[in-house]
Design brief:
2 copies of one chain form a homodimer.
Chain A lengths: L1 H8 L7 H4 L5 E7 L2 E7 L28 H26 L12 H41 L6 H40 L3 H33 L22 H9 L17 H31 L2 H5 L3 H37 L17 H7 L2 H17 L4 H21 L8 H19 L7 H33 L3 H6 L10
Antiparallel strand pairs in A: 1-2
Helix pairs in contact in A: 4-5, 4-6, 5-6, 6-13, 8-10, 10-15, 12-13, 13-14, 14-15
Function (chains A, B): Sterol O-acyltransferase that catalyzes the formation of stery esters.
Subcellular location (chains A, B): Endoplasmic reticulum membrane
Membrane topology (chains A, B): Multi-pass membrane protein
């Protein structure tokens, strides 16, 4: 009944006021169903001028204002959901349920090697600490000596001091380098030769790279802090934040352990901290992490795995149309997993960790999804790594006189090597696709830098489209397909057929 | 070289200004590649405080402002394009090219009957004209008689005048009804029994329904104009627009022919007109119409036809999961064709026709894609029909004292009959799905009227989603599938299997 009343009071079918006003006769009030309704008593119902003015269609170019298209956004969301639900039905009809917990065959030796690396890798951070402890002890001795000569404020004294500082630093740097490289080398060697399962391998390699970067940042930051401690007059003052923990007081176990677990790759003696740990916040983030991990696992096992599997013979026969079709199909799943993975790692996991560590600066990423230049993407999607690269590679290189463009290229080169380590080593195929992908970013940056400024093609939208296409719709699924194929060619079902296939000519096999 | 320079001046990798300002040492100017660059000579590169303030992640609930998600809109567009391009590749690999001009088998008799109906149907509009010509002649005589009695301005005289007017009108209305119903009956009979091809049948039936509505509007409007002519004191004045062509001068061949071709179903003696015909505009609209027609044809022949064909056995065996899957797949093509068809008819065709006719009011539709209530959808997507329904059915019924809700239900009932005529008759299966679909709009209107006002579920978005789901993603493809199946069951490949199938129990066969 309420509904009928509501329909009755709706204006949808009412005569337009402008058109009607002239012909409105007397209006009588009438009691219908207990509510008072106004029934118009107009004589001429059939003559009002429906077409009374000249108007344009709202989609015409000569329309005064463009209508909103927000409804089409909703339609797009629905069509995406419906299309992919349909593909899920087809997938289930074709393969049944592929998700299976007991089916995973972790080799016993993989798990043992993995655990060993998990314990061994952080040990290198403690070695870094010991080296710094020795350097701090040496600096303390130098400080006493220098303070006696402090009155001599001449250029010659400056040069002598720098020489003396550097001769010590080269020794310190040597030990640091040996330690950091050893960490990376040992982990890579074990993952490449002894860990068969790519998942366990990836975790170990990730851990090693993170600790490698933390060691480097700890060593380099303390080098500058030490110099400032010994020669306070020769440079600008240190950040005000660091005053509560001056060098060499910061070289202590507690400070190191905080840096070990802090969600950053950049060492600072002092970080902005929050006052309390909100445990509710932590549990919500951990629940997100768990939920998203399950979603990614289902998507990979149920949708990506059969897709990758049945694209193998397309690569073997170099059927390019079918390869393109497979990459296109894979791209949706890969974008989906990538977005879930990004959120799980950078929003859920790092925020949970930061909350537990009372780490104040939660800017782990920017709004990279809106970027119009691929340059901006690489500086916003992964702030921990960007911060490391900026502080310890780009900025010192520019300081030494390198042209900024060259310093940027060097950063991408270094990042390319890390990417290849992280992807090529656990899959036991250092085929260079990840490295090439990173190097390919340099011309892409140059391209989108130009395109985003072109107004007549809506440069910002075009740049954003190029980013999504190159990165998520082509780059990632293609790379995934190539590494999967290389892995299968080495260990899997196609390794024999591969020897006689035309694809053999395209792949160099080790 | 320009690119390198541009990369060099980019700020992406530069140290953030706030963080750097404290440590900036002397700045030297250096000539590199002919351009002057500022190289910073800061001592402490590795110590600046990357993490200097407490910040939240931009996707966190406690973030100060929500970031823009415009990039995800672009991603959605791309994923939609890529997914559907992929389906096109799969379709081509599976079926090859299905588009074929010479393959269509129009029966000769279909074309002849169609042409006959094309000539016969408008004749009824001219019969309507002849009836009105007679009525106008009679009104002219009555006018002379009444003008003698004009002084008697009493209620009794009014009642007598109304009686006299109505007695004539009942005769006129009888002839109009016979003529209009005969038009619809003859066309429907020929289309249902003699035109096998559903395409030709649909065109003929559409033509007949349009002329039927035009006849009704012409008769009803002239009835009110005649009354106003005879009894000017008894009602409000007519629209100012009509003054240039007062009754009975408007009953002439030229005026009728203009209404015959004008892009409206509502008769007015005078319409707002444009000054000139922009032939460039006309050709652009016609080019759009041609292009979109080809696109719709390809989409139907290449994508919808095989999909409908291979869903037949799913309906025969009542495999509901597969029927759902087919409807989901069909929905994308059906939405696409619907949007193209809408644009082709309501934007391109009607605007072209309006331009040639110098018809001023081009509001053939509103921004129905943004509707949050299904009520608004039905009043905005097809303004010509809405205008007819409002002026000649809804508004007179409400004027006679019907509750507005009941009048609306009656409009949907009438519209449901027309929809069934337009779909059921050309497919030779009056199975009532189109009629039921229209009647189903009434509870849907009641539902979305409520939902759009609920704030905590973003009612407007929810209402819009319900509109798209019910109308474009379920309603249309399901109806298309059912009519296709019914047609195939009567004439096509499955007519024999159908007798023994479980689906037989669900379909009543005539």
């Amino acid at each position: 009944m309420a509904t009928i009343t509501q329909m009755a009071t709706g204006t949808a079918f009412d005569v337009p006021q402008a058109g009607l006003s002239r012909y409105r006769g007397t209006t009588t009030e009438q009691k219908v169903n207990g509510t008072t309704k106004r029934i118009r008593d107009t004589k001429y119902r059939h003559v009002f001028a429906t077409h009374s003015v000249t108007r344009t269609s709202c989609l015409s170019h000569d329309a005064e204002s463009s209508p909103s298209f927000v409804g089409f956004r909703n339609l797009m969301i629905l069509v995406l959901i419906v299309s992919n639900l349909r593909l899920m039905i087809v997938n289930l009809q074709k393969y049944g349920v592929l998700i299976c917990i007991s089916c995973h065959d972790y080799r016993r030796s993989d798990v043992i090697t993995g655990l060993l690396l998990y314990l061994l890798v952080p040990a290198h951070l403690f070695v870094t600490y010991l080296i710094e402890l020795a350097a701090a002890w040496q600096a303390d001795r130098a400080y006493t000596r220098i303070s006696k000569q402090r009155d001599e404020d001449t250029p010659a004294a400056y040069a002598a001091a720098l020489r003396s500082f550097n001769s010590t630093w080269y020794i310190v740097a040597f030990f640091h380098s040996v330690n950091a490289v050893a960490n990376l080398y040992i982990a890579t060697k074990y993952v490449y030769y002894d860990i068969y399962h790519p998942g366990i391998g990836t975790l170990c390699e990730f851990h090693a790279v993170i600790v490698f970067l933390k060691c480097a940042s700890y060593a380099l930051t303390n080098r500058d802090l030490r110099h400032a401690y010994l020669h306070p007059k020769q440079a600008d003052p240190l950040p005000a934040l660091y005053k509560t923990c001056p060098y060499p007081q910061n070289i202590n176990m507690k400070n190191l352990c905080y840096f070990w677990w802090a969600p950053t790759l950049v060492y600072q003696p002092v970080y902005p901290r929050t006052d309390t740990i909100r445990w509710g916040f932590v549990f919500k983030r951990l629940a997100e992490l768990a939920g998203l991990s399950i979603v990614i696992w289902i998507a990979s096992a149920q949708y990506a795995a059969p897709l990758l599997q049945n694209s193998l013979d397309k690569i073997l026969t170099l059927n390019f149309t079918s390869i393109v079709e497979r990459v296109m199909k894979l791209s949706t799943i890969s974008v989906f997993c990538w977005l879930c993975g990004f959120f799980a790692l950078f929003q859920s996991a790092l925020n949970a960790l930061a909350e537990v560590m009372r780490f104040g600066d939660r800017e782990f990423y920017g709004d990279w999804w809106n970027v119009s230049s691929i340059r901006t993407y690489w500086t916003t999607w992964n702030k921990p790594v960007t911060n490391f690269m900026r502080r310890h590679i780009y900025s010192p290189l520019v300081g030494r006189g390198w042209p900024p463009a060259l310093a940027q290229i060097f950063v991408f080169f270094f990042s390319g090597i890390l990417h290849e380590l992280l992807v090529g080593v656990p899959t036991h195929n250092i085929i260079g696709v990840a490295f090439a992908g990173m190097m390919f970013q340099i011309p892409m940056i140059a391209l989108t830098d130009v395109i985003q400024k072109v107004k007549w093609i809506q440069g910002k939208v075009a740049g954003n489209m190029i980013f999504w296409i190159s990165f998520c719709l082509v780059g990632q699924p293609l790379a995934a397909l190539l590494y999967f194929f290389a892995w299968q060619a080495k260990y899997g079902s196609v390794s024999k057929q591969f020897q006689e296939s035309p694809a053999m000519h395209l792949f160099l096999r080790r």
